[in-house]
Amino acid sequence: MKKILALLILSVWICGSVSVVRAQEQGAGAEAQHEESPVRVIARWANFIVLFAGLAFLLRKPMSEFFKTRQTEIASGLRRAQDAQTSAQARMDEIEKRLANLTSEIENLSAAAQQESLAEREKILADAKHEVERVVEQSRQEIERVARAVEREIKEHVADQVIDRAGNALRTEMTQDDQKRIIVRFIQNL
């Protein structure tokens, strides 16, 4: 209600001052060549001040609400920006910490890989040594078996040769009495 009343008074005063100014302009056509009168200058300034004051009065509440809303939005934006900055700083700190740990993790992994490599190398060498020993043992056993077989064949061959020669020698040199004596000795030895 106050607003409507104030608006009505303001509009009446503006209309009145406009009509006064027009009347002065028409009556002062001849005076227009001269300077403006001080009353007219004061009336213009008064009109401006009243208009500005009326607008300020009418727009005071909406403008204060607008500025309060704007202030709240700006404060909220600043808080969000501060939260985002804090969050970004926390993430940056975490990333820097991970990067610092990454170097030590890489060194640890490298050391572990070297140890595993050495252990694997030792295992492979031990397995190879065991395999070599196994192959050597198999070869030695095979050589012994072949040597025994060859030795047996040689002995059989030599024995066959000796028996053949002895048989030939006995047939030619041995008499009937010699054969009987050998048989008797053989039977006595049994």
Could you walk me through the main structural features you see in this protein, from its secondary elements to its overall organization?
The protein has 190 residues and is an all-alpha fold. Helices cover 93% and strands 0% of the residues. It contains 3 helices and no strands.
Using brief descriptors, characterize the structure shown.
about 190 residues, mainly alpha, about 0% strand, 3 helices
Report a brief summary of the structure:
The protein is mainly alpha-helical. Helix content is 93%, strand content 0%. The longest helix has 136 residues, at 38-173.
Task: Please outline the helices and strands.
Elements: H1 2-27, H2 38-173, H3 176-189
Task: Give the low-pLDDT segments.
Answer: none
Note the quaternary state here: single chain
Structural class call reads mainly alpha
What's the β-strand tally? 0
Radius of gyration: 66 Å
Topology pattern, helix = H, strand = E: HHH
